[in-house]
Write a structure and sequence with these properties.
The chain is of the alpha/beta class and about 725 residues long. Helix content is about 45%, strand content about 20%. It has an eight-stranded mixed beta sheet with strand order 5-4-1-6-7-8-10-9, with helices on both faces. It has an eight-stranded mixed beta sheet with strand order 21-20-19-18-17-26-27-28, sandwiched between helices. The structure holds GDP-alpha-D-glucose.
């Protein structure tokens, strides 16, 4: 059974002062507990502390290994550059949209790369063929790519726990391209929400110039799957503590402390992304607006200390303390301060008790990847035990907002909005509170942290092993066999699309001329007895003849409208009776759209009209293409045409003409016993879908996207195959 190698910056262990180690619970580690994951697990990560702090490193290492942990020890310098620097002072603020807080330093970037490489090296020490490697979070963006090519047969997953910011901000990062390339080393890339995925895709497009689809992309001969996996909270941990013998006592203690006050609970790490000053602003506003409630409510602010000693965080702590003092000074009275600030963590039982007892849980981060407090609060409500249900107020900028639609959603920057929501929550009738909790709970209970991990690992397990999917591996063995059969006298037809199949795309179609080796390769293949070669393209005859004429290769142009037998002589029509009267009405509409969409133009072909948007703004072009597709489909409903959305084109073409019809004709004409077709887009599917009788039919899809083809490769893979085929024919 393959191992699961969990890789995260922090580890679920604590190194004791005597050098021994103790497992800690919570977070990721507990998501894998409970037997849902049947892989043996190994952890790779930083054990905390600087390497200089350990007296006996080998003892620490041995202790950690006993706990199933492979440590990545880091020096103080590395921690400064990689952790405090690049991870926490560059990436963290930027990913949370706080670009003005992000600081950039070349030496931090260097340290980040070095430490990511250390992680990759450590993973490779423990990884064996077939293992799953699951890398977590923004500290380790580069690790997936650093594993590529170094060990075959690893399935690599990457999950981002923070938001992925809009590409407009991400582009600010000097090292943006390397970071994106780093992540694309993974087979499965996961995010909490669809929006983060969307921003990631749009960064790939704008920074790397690469097209993706929602489900992923084809990158360097591999498929990179992208998905949305909203993390769940740790149900078991809360169930256990709430079912424990001490819980009623803890609950009673807190109930007594509250002394009849209505509790408005806030729990978070003290971080600027959590919007604590803004929240205090809302509390102040609420107390101003509702003097009658000042004595009734208790805003409890639990802020777990974070990054103490870092100036920014120390200043935030002081700011919060000052403002809490000011609010209490203004609105408190003898014996009651409406805001209580507790700057420390609490045992889980206390936290659960406070979730149960509070009237309102106020979760108002300015940005948050998910926010588990919101989910824990909802799940911990105990109406069935006769307790009153609480109300969740949730920032619309927390990932959890997409799942928790019955919370009261607020804009955390808008103090009036939050103050109004607090009042609404306090006034809300019990029946409505219950209804809201009951509507949200079933989903949370199903999608707990264990289910989340199981789903991600399931997808990772479905990734084909590297060599199974390496494209040339699939096609290559065919080369030898086909060559043997041609030499033995069987007749083979090769039908190859041009753009996107034999040649990559460029901005100006006229620039996509064949590279020097291609005509030679095609000519050599076409000269072999029993082997017929056709280039089957959407291009106009003139281009094809200029670049691929006279090679003995048959040219099929305009998607199967005309052909040039053997690449010389006169072009002929496959079907002389094609009716093209439909063109005039549609042409006008397409031209109008081109006028309105910079970077697009209309191309007229003998039996087709094509709207090109390769040079348009990529997102605008894509959006316009989709609406155009609908418009044209409606306009052409009664016409003998077909409309399709190809690579950067929308094409309307005569139904009486297709690449499939043309290839079918040639297969018969040439009396092929074997036919191999290869193409990359929807027009090629008409040839891929052929089922010629009595012919062994091999179909190859070049690139990603849905297809009926049996083989899949990329441009390079196809080229390697054709070259290999030529060599085998010579042998
Ligand atoms: C990252 C992302 C994303 C808090 N105070 C106490 C305490 N907690 C526990 C809560 C909760 C956790 O800490 C905080 O949840 P977050 O969701 O903020 O998680 P982080 O790991 O900080 O953040 C975040 C998350 O990853 C998961 O992908 O949701 O957006 O930033 O579980 O219960 N626990 C105890 N005492 C406390 O005082 N025992």
């Amino acid at each position: 059974m393959a191992k699961l190698i969990m890789v995260s910056n922090r580890l679920p262990v604590k190194v004791e002062p005597d050098g021994t180690s103790k497992r800690t619970t919570g977070g990721l580690a507990s998501a894998l507990e409970g037997g849902a994951i049947d892989h043996e697990q190994v952890w790779v990560g930083w054990p905390g502390g600087a390497v200089e702090d350990f007296d006996d490193l080998e003892k620490v290492r041995a202790g950690l290994e006993q706990e199933g942990v492979r440590p990545v020890f880091l020096s103080q310098d590395e921690l400064d550059g990689f952790y405090e620097g690049y991870s926490n002072s560059t990436l963290w603020p930027l990913l949370h949209y706080m670009v003005e807080r992000a600081r950039f330093s070349q030496s931090w970037w260097q340290a980040y790369q070095d430490v990511n490489r250390k992680f990759a090296d450590t993973i490779l020490e423990v990884a064996e063929e077939g293992d799953l490697v699951w890398i977590h979070d923004y500290q380790l963006f580069l690790v997936p790519m650093m594993l590529r090519g170094r060990k075959l047969g690893l399935r690599v997953g990457f999950f981002l726990h923070t938001p992925f910011c809009t590409s407009e901000l991400f582009r600010v990062l000097p090292d943006r391209a390397a970071i994106l390339e780093g992540v694309l080393g993974a087979d499965v890339v996961g995010f909490h929400t669809y929006n983060y995925l969307r921003h990631f895709r749009s960064s790939i497009l704008r920074v790397l110039g690469l097209e993706t689809e929602t489900e992923g992309m084809w990158h360097e001969g591999r498929e990179v799957k992208m998905g949305v996996y909203p993390i769940g909270h740790n149900r078991t941990m809360f169930e256990e503590v709430m079912g424990g013998p001490e819980f009623p006592e803890v609950l009673e203690r807190h109930r007594a402390d509250l002394d009849g006050k209505r509790l408005i609970l806030n729990v978070e790490r003290l971080d600027y992304t959590k919007g604590i000053p803004e929240k205090l602003g809302a509390m102040r506003r609420f107390l101003e607006l509702h003097p009658e409630k000042r004595n009734e409510v208790m805003f409890l602010l639990i802020a777990v200390p974070s990054r103490q000693g870092v100036k920014e965080y120390d200043e935030l702590t002081e700011e919060v303390q000052r403002e809490v003092g000011a609010i209490n000074g203004k609105f408190g009275k003898v014996g009651h301060s409406p805001v209580q600030f507790l700057h420390r963590g609490f045992p889980l039982a206390d936290l659960a008790a406070l979730y149960v007892l509070c009237d309102v849980c106020l979760v108002t981060p300015l940005r948050d990847g998910m926010n588990l407090v919101a989910k824990e609060f909802v799940d911990c409500q105990r109406m069935e035990d006769g307790l009153s249900a609480g109300v969740l107020i949730l920032s619309e900028f927390a990932g959890a907002a997409t799942e928790l639609s019955q919370a009261l959603h607020v804009n955390p920057y808008d103090v009036d909005d939050v103050a109004t929501a607090v009042n609404r929550a306090l006034e809300m009738p019990e029946a409505e509170r219950r209804e809201r909790i009951e509507a949200m709970r079933p989903r949370l209970r199903k999608n707990h942290s264990g289910a989340w991990a199981k789903q991600f690992i399931g997808d990772l397990n479905r990734v084909p092993m590297r060599d199974e999917r390496a494209p040339t591996m699939k096609l290559r063995p065919l080369a030898g066999d086909l060559a043997k059969r041609v030499k033995a006298g069987e007749k083979l037809g090769l039908f190859l699309d041009y753009d996107g199949t034999l040649r990559g795309f460029v901005d100006v179609p006229e620039d996509a001329v064949p590279d020097p080796g291609l005509p030679q390769l095609l000519a050599e293949l076409a000269s072999v007895d029993g082997l017929s070669v056709a280039v089957v393209s959407g291009r106009a005859p003139a281009f094809l003849e200029e670049h691929l004429g006279g090679l003995g290769v048959t040219l099929v142009g305009e998607h199967g409208f005309r052909w040039l037998d053997g690449g010389e002589g006169e072009w002929a029509l496959f079907n002389p009776h094609v009716n093209n009267e439909w063109k005039s009405g549609l042409r006008e509409h397409l031209e109008q759209v081109s006028l309105e969409t910079p970077g697009t133009h209309v191309e007229e072909k003998a039996s087709a009209l094509v709207w090109h948007y390769r040079a348009a703004d990529p997102e605008f072009g894509e959006w316009r293409a989709r609406s155009l597709l609908d418009e044209v489909t409606a306009m052409a409903a009664n016409l003998p045409v077909t409309v399709h959305h190809g690579k950067k084109i929308v094409e309307v073409s005569s139904l009486q003409v297709s690449k499939g019809e043309a290839v079918d004709y040639l297969i018969k004409q040439w009396q092929c016993g074997i036919a191999l077709v290869a193409g990359d887009d929807q027009t090629d599917e008409t040839m891929i879908a052929l089922e010629p009788e009595g012919v062994e039919f091999l179909s190859v899809k070049v690139g990603k996207g849905s297809t009926r083809a049996v083989y899949r490769t990329d441009i390079t893979g196809l080229r390697v195959f054709l070259e290999e085929f030529r060599e085998c024919l010579k042998r």
